[in-house]
Predict the structure.
Amino acid sequence: MQAEQRARAIVEVVRERGFQTIESLAGEFAVTPQTIRRDVNALSDQGMLRRRHGGVELPQQGENLAYPARQQLNLAAKRAIAQLVARDVPARASLFFGIGTTPEQCALALVHHPQLRVMTNNLNVAMRLAHNPDCELIVAGGRVRNLDLDVVAGEAHDFFARFNVDIGIFGVGAVAPDGTLLDFSLDEVAMRESLMRHCRQRFLVLDHSKFARDATVRGGHITDATAVYSDRPLPSSIRAMLVAGGVRVVVPAENPNLSQVSLTPGECS
């Protein structure tokens, strides 16, 4: 296993199992403890993990992982979600993109879509879609968060209010059991809620891990979305809320001969 692959795998192991000792990771990956220490030190310096005596753990609850770590977590799931979203975005659509790694994957899936008009505070999204010569890009101004490459500071809060678009594509830090949407800062929530108010359709994109995560700032409810895209069937209580609220649910089909499963009000599976 190459060092980069091993680093991604270490983050996944710690995320799934919690605190890991250097020795247990060395055994897991069949390398020396010295090699694992180098990997762990590099990951900790990037904010992906947190060193503790004798081992490593995720950052403290209420703190988000560093953006490079989030880009690698559940990557296949995020790509599957992005393909479902791309199928539902028509040519010549106007779009908002919010922050986060799943919206970034959605932007990548739209690189060849014709005649898009995109407004975003996510510079990763802008850089992805800049490869589409047929896409008009408008980016929020203000202070950039260096590792995340997004703009959520106060001066950007009125950015989305200047437009009215067809579709807003946005993620969320976590979803509480009662359907409350959670994020890691007041600025993130303010920008997301502004985005949702000024688009005709609201596409919430989130992989299955968001139903088991914790974040501290409340803002909105999952039923505020027009459609929810995920990589797995949603928890039954959440799905019931969405169906009752008239929110479309889109997940990959379990049948490989089908491209997707879309649940609309009155349908449950």
User: Anything to note?
Assistant: The longest helix spans residues 3-17.
